[in-house]
Specification:
- The chain is an alpha/beta fold.
- The chain has a domain at about 1-190 and about 225-250 and about 295-315: NAD(P)-binding Rossmann-like Domain (Rossmann fold, 3-Layer(aba) Sandwich), CATH 3.40.50.
- About 45% of the residues lie in helices and about 15% in strands.
- The chain contains 13 helices and 13 strands.
- The chain has helices at about 10-20, 60-70, 85-90, 95-115, 120-125, 155-175, 200-205, 225-240, 255-270, 300-310, 315-330, 330-335, 340-350, and strands at about 1-5, 25-30, 50-55, 75-80, 125-130, 180-185, 190, 210-215, 220-225, 225, 245-250, 255, 285.
- A seven-stranded parallel sheet has the order 3-2-1-4-5-6-11, with helices on both faces.
- β1, α1 and β2 form a beta-alpha-beta unit.
- The structure holds nicotinamide-adenine-dinucleotide and 2'deoxy-thymidine-5'-diphospho-alpha-D-glucose (DAU).
- 2'deoxy-thymidine-5'-diphospho-alpha-D-glucose (DAU) binds near residues 84, 85 and 222.
């Protein structure tokens, strides 16, 4: 069996659903259930006998160690993290606690467990750390995309905390020989994405007639990857990735934020037109820029494509249509995650005027 941490979040819940659908192997989901973790995202698999949920913090070494002794997993996939850049700018304490100290404690528990395994179990064990392209910093307009050899230059408290976690994972392999592998992925989108992030926020604000807050000039570029393509990359790296290596994952789908928001608006115009006949694009509102806003991210995915044969199945046009359709068809899930805490965040980030 395998352990997935942070499996109640956006990417982790998609990963667990696909894992169970694509094989027989059981999975334990260890999640602290922060504001971003929602068991409703896994409601369709909660009664599957191969699935088990454990409510715990990755930083709780005693609980993690006991779970490792009990379940003897062949692999751990570490998604658990504080993941929202704007929240890290408002206050980075939780990012340091989970992304750095939590990852360190998790690695310590894993290392102690791995030390006691037989040689053959040690050889087949895997710790896969899920990281981000943001650790590489920001690209200028025509600069080549990030390869695995690009220098780390994190610019936000979030990316700095993820960079620190990547270094701890690397050191665990180099010093103690624990078989680790790290993936650095670009912006994901798709079902179950928490609506503090650009695409789901725009869909939900559009539908309730709120402004669509585009930071700065809207010309920042992100490289969008449909979430199930990220999940297929992680499964491949887990199966065939070389230990101690890092693999960049990206969709070769660079878009400015304004392009993304306009595409979301046209899809909504087609699928759920406004009652007054106007386009949702009339709700676009340019707001104060994110402090330290990285201008452009782009991933060169040549290594994972050539070495492991990975290829994204969705392009941006197909993925964004599926995403908008999913949000239109899953308003119950949306209601369940837009709780009091969500409303507090919207107030503190965008002000009451955005209501
Ligand atoms: P998310 O915020 O949607 O989910 C994070 C999950 O981790 C939640 O279920 C939360 O409850 C859990 N969690 C937080 N702190 C925890 C702790 N101390 N112990 C146990 N569980 C804890 O995040 P996501 O978007 O699904 O991202 C998952 C991972 O992928 C993160 O490590 C993130 O840095 C990385 N990543 C995300 C993207 C993206 O575009 N979303 C892109 C590249 C990499
Ligand atoms: O690149 C991978 C990263 O992608 C992950 O590591 C992070 O966990 C994930 O949150 C995401 O980070 P971003 O900061 O790129 O995503 P976000 O959805 O917050 O913002 C995307 C772009 O849209 C960014 O340039 C900021 C802009 N934006 C965002 C929001 C929430 C707006 O213009 N308006 C908004 O209201």
């Amino acid at each position: 069996m395998i352990i997935v941490t942070g499996g109640a979040g956006f990417i982790g819940s998609n990963f667990i659903r696909e894992w169970l659908a694509s094989g027989q192997e059981p999975v334990v989901n260890l999640d602290k259930l922060t504001y971003a973790g929602n068991l409703k995202s896994l409601a369709d698999v909660e009664h599957d006998p191969r699935y088990r949920f454990v409510h715990a913090d990755i930083g709780d070494r005693a609980t993690v160690s006991a779970l490792l002794r009990e379940t003897r997993p062949r692999a751990i996939v570490n998604f658990a993290a504080e993941s929202h850049v704007d929240r890290s700018i408002q206050g980075a304490g939780e990012f340091i606690a989970t992304n750095i100290v939590g990852t360190f404690n998790l690695l310590e528990a894993v290392r102690a467990h791995w030390d006691l395994l037989s040689l053959s179990e040690q050889g087949s064990f895997r710790f896969l750390h899920v990281s981000t392209d943001e650790v590489y910093g920001s690209l200028a307009g025509q600069e080549p995309a990030f390869t695995e050899r690009h220098q780390y230059e994190p610019n936000s408290p979030y990316s700095a905390s993820k960079a620190a976690s990547d270094h701890l994972v690397r050191a665990c392999h180099h010093t103690y020989h624990v078989p680790v592998v790290t993936t650095n992925c670009s912006n994901n989108y798709g079902p179950y994405h928490f609506p503090e992030k650009l695409i789901p926020l725009m869909i939900l604000n559009a539908l309730v007639g709120k402004p669509l807050p585009v930071y700065g000039d809207g010309q920042n570029v992100r490289d969008w990857l449909y979430v199930t393509d990220h999940c297929s990359a992680i499964r491949l790296v887990l199966a065939n990735g070389r230990m101690g290596e890092t693999y960049n994952v990206g969709g070769r789908n660079e878009r400015t934020n304004l392009e993304v928001v306009n595409i979301v608006c046209s899809l909504l115009d087609e699928l759920k037109p406004r009652a007054d006949g106007n386009s949702y694009a009339t709700q676009i509102s340019f707001v104060r820029d994110r402090p330290g806003h990285d201008r452009r991210y782009a991933i060169d995915a040549t290594k994972i494509e050539n070495e492991l044969g990975w290829k994204a199945a969705e392009n941006f046009e197909s993925g964004i249509r599926k995403t908008v359709q999913w949000y239109l068809g899953n308003q119950e899930w949306v209601q369940s995650v837009t709780s009091g805490e969500y409303r507090n965040w919207m107030d503190s980030q965008y002000g009451k005027a955005a209501e």
